[in-house]
Design goal:
Shape: globular
CATH superfamily of the largest domain: Isopropylmalate Dehydrogenase
CATH class of the largest domain: Alpha Beta
Number of strands: 11
Strand content: 15-25%
Number of domains: 2
CATH architecture of the largest domain: 3-Layer(aba) Sandwich
Strand order of the largest sheet: 3-2-1-4-11-10-5-6-9-7-8
Oligomer: single chain
Number of helices: 13
CATH topology of the largest domain: Isopropylmalate Dehydrogenase
Helix content: 40-55%
């Protein structure tokens, strides 16, 4: 008999306490179906969580909320001045310091074996920077603390119309657009393709996958007329990958403006063609995330692949402008928790 536990335990960080993190967590955990697949511990500040709960209960037509008194909370103590400077709807240095402390605590506990994965509520990068933490985002902090150099941002969403699953990995992430062409190299593309294939095989149980890879330039360069990257190295690299990975079907470089047509049809049920494509590799942030958010803004999940543990996150921001009003949509947080349980359960079975 295996000595490993069968029930995964997830840490759910509160994110920026001035944002909608507490609201979407309490709404998600009010759904009994979300909590039936494992244990959940909120990593944050119990007083701030309770304050949000009380404020939200006063909002008109509020959706059901889980009572913090009935939840497992790992209480991260905050300096009194930091706590006093936190106000719903106003992200600042204090809220950034708090959200960073929640993340550090969750990561340390997970690396220590207390949790099987982390679900992260949204943070504000500007608030982190104001608090003295200069990271592009939570993904990079997770990778640094976990001691890994090869990692990726994979966005996963299941269509409510067809149940088709969209998987999109970004080759580059939080960098300015004018740095993308310099950052992209055959070595980086190989690393990201390795991560995507391994994830599809191990986490989703799909062998011999079909993967579409985007071009960089309009019309994928159009024979060098609209950019030379495809001709100079992207096409030769892709042909080499086809030869080295004969068990895979690799499509591309696909013109970026047409790569998303068939996935969109598959999402809405207008075609069966893309249902056999298991993953999409976009070359930069907006090339992948504009179509993902158009199709699945309320249900897409960001998962960091390449870590020694599971990490998922809703695909939306802190929404300071609506914090405390009771109108935040918890669908993406529910999806993030569910995917976290699914992936953690798969990893436990493999062990």
């Amino acid at each position: 008999m295996s000595t490993y536990k069968l029930c995964p335990h997830l840490a759910v960080t509160m994110g920026d306490p001035a944002g909608i993190g507490a609201e979407v967590i309490l709404k998600a955990l009010a759904d009994p179906h979300i909590r039936k697949n494992g244990e959940i511990t909120i990593v944050g500040n119990r007083d701030l969580l309770t304050e949000s709960y009380t404020k939200l209960n006063l909002a008109a037509k509020i959706a059901p909320l889980a009572n913090p008194e009935n939840l497992s909370v790992l209480d991260v103590r905050l300096d009194a001045k930091i706590k006093a400077d936190i106000t719903l709807g106003k992200g600042n240095n204090a809220s950034g310091a708090a959200s960073f402390a929640y993340m550090e605590t969750a990561i340390a506990c997970t690396l220590n074996g207390e949790f099987d994965g982390i679900v992260t509520a949204p943070i504000a990068k500007s608030a982190w920077k104001g608090a003295g933490y200069d990271y592009p985002g939570q993904t990079e902090l997770l990778a640094q603390k976990a001691g890994v150099n090869k990692f990726g941002m994979l966005f996963v969403a299941q269509s409510p119309h067809t149940n088709w699953i969209l998987r999109c990995l970004l080759a580059t992430t939080h960098i300015p657009l004018n740095q993308v062409s310099q950052a992209l190299t055959p070595e980086l593309m190989t690393e990201k393709l390795d991560l995507l294939v391994e994830c599809i095989e191990k986490d989703f149980g799909i062998k011999n996958s079909r993967i579409a890879i985007a071009g960089l330039n309009p019309h994928a360069g159009e024979g060098g007329q609209l950019g030379c990257e495809e001709q100079h190295w992207l096409r030769p690299w892709l042909e080499e990958q086809r030869q080295q990975r004969p068990h895979l079907q690799l499509f591309g470089p696909t013109p970026p403006d047409t790569m998303w047509v068939e996935p969109c049809k598959a999402w809405y049920g207008n075609t069966q063609q893309s249902k056999s494509v298991h993953g999409y590799l976009a070359l930069y942030h907006d090339q992948g995330l504009i179509p993902v958010k158009l199709m699945a803004f309320d249900r897409a999940v960001n998962t960091t692949i390449g870590l020694p543990f599971i990490r998922t996150s809703p695909d939306h921001g802190t929404a300071f402008d609506i914090a405390g009003q009771g109108i935040a949509d918890a669908t993406s947080m529910k999806a993030a928790i569910q995917l976290g349980f699914d992936l953690a359960s798969q990893k436990i079975k493999i062990k």
